[in-house]
From TrEMBL:
The keyword GTP-binding does not apply. Belongs to the UPF0502 family. PANTHER family: UPF0502 PROTEIN YCEH. Keywords: Coiled coil. It comes from Duganella rivi. It comes from the Bacteria. This is DUF480 domain-containing protein. It holds the Pfam family DUF480.
Length: 222
């Protein structure tokens, strides 16, 4: 996003995306309660990365989003529970097809137009990949842009797209993580990268231990 544009953190992006998703999938339960929103954020399916947010964390995120006019809190007469709704459609002047594309990118990370079409499901039914590409181009052309088209990855024929709500640096990190995750199967990219980082730390410690042992060994001959 351009300098000066608002940047959202990963938790804020997840909360907004879940609100937009559930608005389309379960309209009878929308606006959403805090409890339903926590469950949606931590859902194991259709999420990359999978998260485990506490109720307190989601409540704090909602407060920040309401202050910045991304979310409305609604307390109906006689109701003790506040319900929440997103304002992305109003904030960025988005029709449902554009909102659906952005929501899928927010929930599931980098994807091709074909993957977005397959996964958009009940959020919006796209008749063709071309229709998805038109919606993507609209999001790319906004000022500041909401989506970016990435360079073709080695060995691929279709470009991937990513949302820019977390800023260009966050998108670049996601692109790097995805390329490292590559063809590793199973789990979300975030999970795979976490496992790789842990493995690197373990290997580094083993090298340090071996180096120390070798130094001790050399001393015997000095």
């Amino acid at each position: 996003m351009e300098e000066g544009a608002e940047v959202l953190d990963p938790f804020e992006i997840r909360v907004l995306a879940v609100l937009a998703e559930k608005e389309a999938l379960t309209p009878d339960n929308y606006p959403m309660s805090l409890n339903a929103l926590v469950n949606g954020c931590n859902q194991l399916s259709s999420r990359d990365p999978v998260m485990a947010l506490s109720e307190d964390t989601v409540a704090e995120v909602l407060q920040r989003l309401m202050q910045r006019k991304y979310v409305n809190g609604i307390t109906q007469a006689g109701a003790r529970v506040t319900k929440y709704e997103h304002r992305m459609r109003i904030k960025w002047s988005l029709e449902q097809d554009k909102l659906a594309v952005l929501t899928i990118l927010m929930l599931r990370g980098l994807q091709t137009a074909g993957e977005i079409r397959t996964r958009s499901g009940r959020l919006h039914e796209f008749k063709s990949v071309g229709d998805v590409e038109l919606a993507l181009q609209f999001l790319i052309d906004k000022y500041p842009p909401l989506v970016s088209r990435l360079a073709l990855a080695p060995g691929t024929k279709e470009p991937r797209y990513g949302q820019l709500l977390g800023g260009e640096d966050a998108l670049a990190r996601e692109e790097t993580a995805a390329s490292l995750g590559g063809s590793v199967s199973g789990g979300g990219q975030g999970t795979r990268i976490g496992a790789l980082e842990q493995e690197v730390q373990q290997l580094r410690k083993q090298v340090e231990d071996l180096t120390a042992q070798f130094a001790e060994f050399r001393k015997q001959f000095e």
